Amino acid sequence: MSKKTFVVGAKPGQNLVIEEDGVRVEIVVSAEPTLHEITEDFEPIEVESIENGIRYPIVVAGQTVMVETHVGPDNDEVTAQWLIEREGTAEFLAKHAPDGVLRLGVGGGDLDEHPKESNGHVRTKVNCTTTLTARELRIAVDSKLAPILTYALKRDTTATSEPFDFAGTIKLLHKLYPNDPLKVIAWGKRGLDAKLAEEKLAKTFSVQHIGVLMCMQSPDKPQMVANWLLEGARAKALEQTTFLEARADFRNPDKTTCMDFELHERPRPIRIVTIKSDNPEMSKFARSKDGGLSDVVILNKASGQVQIFTSEKAKLDMAEVARILDYEEQKALGMTPTLMGPEGTGLSKRWHFMRNGQMILNGSNTHPDVPATMLSLEQVVSLVKIGLHPQMFDEQRAELYCQRGRCHPTCPWRGWDLPRCNKVRSTPAA
Questions:
Q1: For the CA atoms of the chain, what is the radius of gyration?
Q2: What is the pLDDT of residue 238?
Q3: 307 strand-pairing partners
Q4: Rounded to whole angstroms, how far apart are CA atoms 21 and 339?
Q5: Which residues contact 381 (CB under 8 A, 6 or more apart)?
Q6: Distance separating alpha carbons of residues 151 and 303, to the nearest angstrom
Q7: Would you report the helix, strand and coil content of the chain in percent, each value rounded to 5?
Q8: 175: Cβ–Cβ under 8 A, 6 or more apart, which residues?
Q9: Residue range(s) of every CATH 3.10.310 domain in the chain
Q10: What is d(CA 18, CA 16) in angstroms, rounded to the nearest whole number?
Q11: Model confidence over 26-40: pLDDT tens digits?
Q12: Residue 99: exposure state from Cβ atoms within 10 A (0-12, 13-18, ≥19)
């Protein structure tokens, strides 16, 4: 059985010890490491802030091009950029950056996995920015890069991970260094370099495992390896601290409201939790055992933005909820409302539905500039319950109309095009 040990927060003069699969690495930390030391091989680059994203230059096939991506690019975008810098050609740039700009995970082009009219993509678990990039680079599915592509896809489309996970640590580093995305990207690319140099790529992508690879590949650079590992440890320590702070917020009755909601044909009620907090670990805590295994978490931030998360075990379909929220948002904005598609961003431009994770987001870490919803928190909670309950009807009309197979012509629910309402309209009146 493999043994893994990681000493978090080693100080100058202390030893950093890693053990994995019989390999023991011990490094004496000679100086307080900084992320600058980790990225010393990379030239300093200016990062330009754009709407809901960032822009910065990279060199591909001897040409300097600009990259545009979302705020806090995660493992998916980092891996896609790493692939392009390794494998990109002038032909690739001519196709995907004719204006000198590569758009990764944004912009609605061929390298954006999010569904847009411009790219015709359907968001499924078979595509992410990395896999789309690999396809355009003509990287064979059975190449040595295949495990890296598979990992990027899995981490982008599912909630599964391993302890001290590489992709998760990239997200944490963005929280630790919110104003230095390129330093985090450099940390990620260094880890990917080490992983690719592995003789036979193992499925594990833990930070410990990659640290062991670095030690074996660069025995003459122990300080560089220590720096890389300790930055990952700092990020993990931040996550643990933030998680404990989330517990305090969750247990504060002024911030948290819990309700059990009966759903048709479910053996038990689902738990809906409404929390006022900016803590980035709050949703994860609420869905944990300590948080009562909440099924739906409605997070209300100080900015007024609202984010709705669900437990994977609850297997809830949030599509109707997303459509209702966006429809009512359009009405609140004075628009002529139109129903949004099955996923993606609604016409109000304030709600985004991610079908794979069954999340509905009014702004996020990667899109912080989305305006806050015009709907009150009470409205949001009410609409969530309506969208989830397939047998619920408008209380004022249910008994006299809906339950008798008649649809009231002025019912405020008519525009939502709910299957339950369509069934009433198509059934002969009693």
A1: 24
A2: 86
A3: 299, 361
A4: 54
A5: 272, 274, 298
A6: 34
A7: 35, 15, 45
A8: 235, 238, 239, 242, 280
A9: 252-392
A10: 7
A11: 554 444 444 434 344
A12: exposed
CA angle in degrees (0–180, nearest 5) for 16-18-20: 175
Cα 111 to Cα 24, 69, 199, 363, distances in angstroms? 41, 10, 30, 22
Name the residue type at position 345. Answer: T
AA letter at 205:
F
Type of residue found at 178: P
β-pair partners for 5:
19
Q: Could you tell me the two tokens for 428?
A: 């002969």
Packed helices 166-176 and 181-196: angle between N→C axes, nearest 10 degrees: 160
**What pLDDT shows up at residue 115?**
61
CA-to-CA dists, residue 35 to 40, 217, 265, angstroms:
9, 20, 53
The topology under which CATH files domain 252-392 is Diaminopimelate Epimerase; Chain A, domain 1 (3.10.310)
> CA–CA separation, 206 vs 236, rounded Å?
12
The model's pLDDT over 362-407, given as tens digits with 9 standing for 90+, comes to 998 878 889 999 999 999 999 999 999 888 887 777 677 777 777 7
> How far is the C-alpha of 364 from the C-alpha of 212, rounded, in Å?
34
What are the tokens at 176?
A: 């630790």
The CB-side HSE value for 354 (13 A sphere, CA atoms) comes to: 19
Report the alpha-carbon distance of residue 394 to residue 413 in Å, rounded: 7
Taken in order 123, 129, 131, 137, is the CA torsion positive or negative? Answer: positive
Sequence-distant (6+) residues with CB within 8 A of 289 are none
230: its two tokens: 């300790």
Q: How far apart are CA 340 and CA 265, in angstroms?
A: 27
The helix (H) or strand (E) run that includes residue 55 is: strand 53-60
Closest by CA position to 166, among listed 74, 80, 77: 74
Calculate the alpha carbon distances from 174 to 34, 68, 238, 275 in Å: 15, 17, 11, 24
Backbone angles phi, psi at 267, to 5 degrees: -65, -25
